[in-house]
Amino acid sequence: MLIPYLPLIMFAFVSSITPGPNNIMLTSSGIWFGFRRSIPHMLGITIGFGVLLAVCATGIGALVMAAPAAQFALRAAGSGYLLYLAWQLRSMDFDRQAGQARQPMGFVAAAVFQFCNPKAWVMAITGGAAFLPQGMPAPLAIAIYCLVFCAVNLPCISVWTGAGALLRRYLSQPLWRKVFCAVMVALTVYSAVAIWL
């Protein structure tokens, strides 16, 4: 039954598991807050991305991306948030009280961020153009497409959150924490710059 959707499943897996703004943010969230407190963030990404998939599958996404002003706004919002995140990442405090004072990204914020995430737009438009099921009514095809993609996406992004939560144990030493922070800042700044390339 899943064989007709195997190309979509593979595309969803590769595009969801590879590094990008969402996965970098989830790794950071796993480090700062642990896996359990990051669950709303993960669900927000998956549901928000599912809505974006549906929007793009109807053709609206291509119209939005065809407008230069919309492209600029998406890039500016996405890169601006990533630079803000890089600033926050420059020093991580694993003190229990400091961790409780901070709050992880919530469900709504994570869902809305998908509409500012250029990688998500590219994934949604490309996937809709290439992998939307054929030979069935459009609403059913879009629903199946979104459900399959989201079912693959959530476990993939969970891996990044889990990796962050696992790394937290090994970042108690100041030297390793500084090295890790520098790497995460560099990756986040790169993601912010890559949006404009």
Automatic annotation (TrEMBL):
GO MF term set: amino acid transmembrane transporter activity
Keywords, A to Z, come to: Cell membrane, Membrane, Transmembrane, Transmembrane helix
What does the record say about its membrane topology?
Multi-pass membrane protein
GO:BP terms for this protein? Answer: cysteine export across plasma membrane
Q: Where in the cell is it found?
A: Cell membrane
Q: Which GO terms describe its cellular component?
A: plasma membrane
Transmembrane portions of the chain: 6-35, 42-63, 107-130, 142-167, 179-196
What the entry lists under InterPro entries is as follows: LeuE-type (IPR001123)
Stated name of the protein: LysE family translocator
Q: Please report the organism this UniProt entry assigns to the protein.
A: Pseudoduganella dura
